[in-house]
Amino acid sequence: MSETTATPPTGATPGQQPDARRGAAYDSAFLRACRHEPVPHTPVWFMRQAGRSLPEYLKVREGIPMLESCMRPELVKEITLQPVRRHKVDAAIFFSDIVVPLRAVGIDVDIKPGIGPVIADPIRSFADLERLRPLEPDDVPYITEAVGLLVDELGPTPLIGFAGAPYTLASYLIEGGPSKNHENTKAMMYGAPDLWAALLDRLAGITAAFLKVQIEAGASAIQLFDSWVGALAPDDYRRSVMPASTKVFDAVAGYGVPRIHFGVGTGELLGLMGQAGADVVGVDWRVPLNVAAERVGPGKGLQGNLDPAVLFAPTSAVETKAREVLHAAQAIGSSGHIFNLGHGVMPSMDPDALSRLVAFVHEASAR
Ligand code: 1CP
Question: What predicted TM-score, i.e. pTM, was given to this entire model?
Answer without folding.
Answer: 0.94
